[in-house]
Design brief:
With about 350 residues, this protein is α/β, with parallel strands linked by helices. It has ten helices and 15 strands.
């Protein structure tokens, strides 16, 4: 690769934050700065791995998704944003990280919905007797998770999800805004909200999982109401200069789900709100049966999804999944997308 000529090695901006090149390391569950499957803590090994990527020249790094609330519902565990010790450890790390010239966004996990069994906002494995016993005072355990509608859980089709109430949606919006503000104060350069892979916001978008007849279902405006309320609440507390990025699956890749055209239309709708500063594009839900990232999938196989979205929005779009550095150079040089993962 030739840094002198490739657009991949030119600076760009997400919102008002300048990033030194267009190489992005996307979020991965195993590389969270904060432990999230185990009790939340500052994960030093993951932190070193991410710092090393920035030292190697990656312009933007996203740690693995970080749950806003406790993920297992085990008594005595602290929620992420209650852990003062962890943030004291984060401060010197962020100072060291920024010496590389790289930027660091944090992905706030929006909730798994029917992609996992959740007790309110806390993940509870539906067939685990111990966890269900803990959950039973809080939620009827015949339901495996809270989602847009009472549709089959991904892991157990005979167990229906519990439709979120309007009050729960509003509470969740507040939690996301609180988390975003703390992330800003902690020194992150921006945040990313996950709507991808069939998680909660995507379940409100998809006709497969959103069967609601209230203000959160039906029309394009209604199916986007949850995410728009979240974005508006976050923007209110972080201000206009702090980047908000969405990670989206460019197509559900499920029969009866959102197509590439549907997701492009949704992104165009969200772009017009002025709340979103960039889109990071993946493909498919966890439910999808087509290969997504395995070796037989050609490089840049899902680029068409990023191009569809880029044609509908005015903010940067970058493409992930099955990307190689040489291919990344080509697609950015052509202007297909603005950056590559």
């Amino acid at each position: 690769m030739n840094e002198k000529y490739s657009a991949l090695f030119t600076p760009w901006k997400i919102g008002n934050v300048e990033i030194k090149n267009r190489i992005v390391q996307c979020s991965m569950g195993g590389t969270s700065l904060f432990g999230w499957l185990e009790p939340n803590h500052f994960d030093k090994e993951a932190a070193y791995f991410l710092l090393n990527r920035a030292q190697d020249g990656v312009g933007l790094v996203l740690p693995g998704m970080q749950c806003v609330r406790d993920t297992l519902g085990i008594p005595g565990r602290k929620w992420l944003w209650q852990n003062d010790k962890m943030f004291k450890q984060l401060k010197p790390y962020m100072e060291e990280y920024h010496k590389t010239g790289g930027k660091l966004f944090i992905q706030l996990a929006a909730g798994f919905g029917r992609s996992m069994a959740i007790n309110g906002w806390m993940t509870v494995l539906a067939k685990n007797d111990f966890l269900n016993k803990l959950a039973s005072p809080i939620v009827d355990v015949q339901y495996s998770c809270a989602s847009a509608s009472a549709t089959p859980n991904r892991w157990q089709e005979d167990m229906l999800s519990r439709p979120m109430t309007v009050e729960e949606i509003h509470e969740f919006v507040e939690w996301q805004a609180d988390a975003a503000l703390i992330a800003k104060r902690a020194g992150f350069d921006g945040i990313e909200l996950e709507t991808n892979s069939g998680y909660l916001y995507g379940q409100f978008w998809s006709p497969l999982t959103n069967l609601r007849t209230d203000e959160y279902g039906g029309s394009l405006e209604n199916r986007n109401r949850f995410i728009v309320e979240t974005l508006a609440a976050i923007r209110e507390v972080v201000g206009p200069e702090f980047p908000i990025q969405l990670r989206v699956s460019g197509s559900d890749l499920l029969e009866g789900g959102c197509t590439g055209d549907d997701i492009a239309e949704i992104c165009g709708y969200l772009d017009k709100t002025g709340f979103v500063d960039s889109f990071s594009v993946t493909a498919g839900w966890h439910d999808s049966t087509v290969p997504l990232i395995t070796m037989e999938v050609p490089y840049a196989n899902w680029l068409y999804l990023g191009r569809q979205i880029k044609a509908k929005v005015h903010v940067p779009v970058f493409q992930g999944m099955r990307m190689h550095i040489k291919v990344a150079e080509e697609v950015v040089d052509r202007g297909d997308v603005d950056g590559a993962v």
